[in-house]
Amino acid sequence: MLTGKQKRFLRSKAHHLNPIFQVGKGGVNDNMIKQISEALEARELIKISILQNCEEDKDSVANLLVNGTKAELVQIIGNIIVLYKESRENKQLQLP
């Protein structure tokens, strides 16, 4: 689990990122979870945008993604979800 201090640090790092995935009408599927897991391994910290036509609410989308990828939810702000997962091969971020 992330501490408050670590979440603040990750939020500041995520501020400049652009969302690299979008969850739309189809919702969250296995293929998306696999791609997001790979992106987390490569980048550690990613943003995912939830489109207006997504039929699920952002909290359930966030839960599906967190459970599917085993990542940490850093924050949900508006329709953007920020996820963090420490990379095994490609460690870039040093948490406080």
Could you walk me through the main structural features you see in this protein, from its secondary elements to its overall organization?
The protein is α+β, with helices and mostly antiparallel strands and about 100 residues long. The chain has helices spanning about 5-15, 30-45, 60-70; strands at about 20-25, 45-50, 70-75, 80-85. The model has no long low-confidence stretch (mean pLDDT about 95).
Per-chain topology:
Layout: H1 4-14, E1 21-23, H2 30-43, E2 45-50, H3 58-69, E3 72-77, E4 80-84
Parallel strand pairs: 1-2
Antiparallel strand pairs: 2-4, 3-4
Domain CRM: 1-96
InterPro entries: RNA-binding_CRM, RNA-binding_domain, RNA-binding_YhbY, YhbY-like_sf
Protein name: RNA-binding protein
Provide a compact summary of the structure.
22% of the residues are buried. With 96 residues, the chain is of the alpha+beta class.
Instruction: List the total number of helices.
Output: 3
CATH class: Alpha Beta
Radius of gyration: 13 Å
User: What is the terminal-to-terminal distance?
Assistant: 13 Å
Structural class: alpha+beta
Query: What spatial form do the alpha-carbon principal axes imply?
Result: globular
Q: Segments where pLDDT lies below 50 for 5+ residues?
A: none
- Output mean pLDDT: 94
Largest sheet: 4 strands, mixed
Q: Give the helix level as a range of percent.
A: 25-40%
Overall domain count: 1
Major β-sheet strand ordering: 1-2-4-3
The run of helices and strands is HEHEHEE
CATH homology superfamily: YhbY-like
Protein name: RNA-binding protein
InterPro entries: RNA-binding_CRM, RNA-binding_domain, RNA-binding_YhbY, YhbY-like_sf
GO molecular function: RNA binding
Keywords: RNA-binding
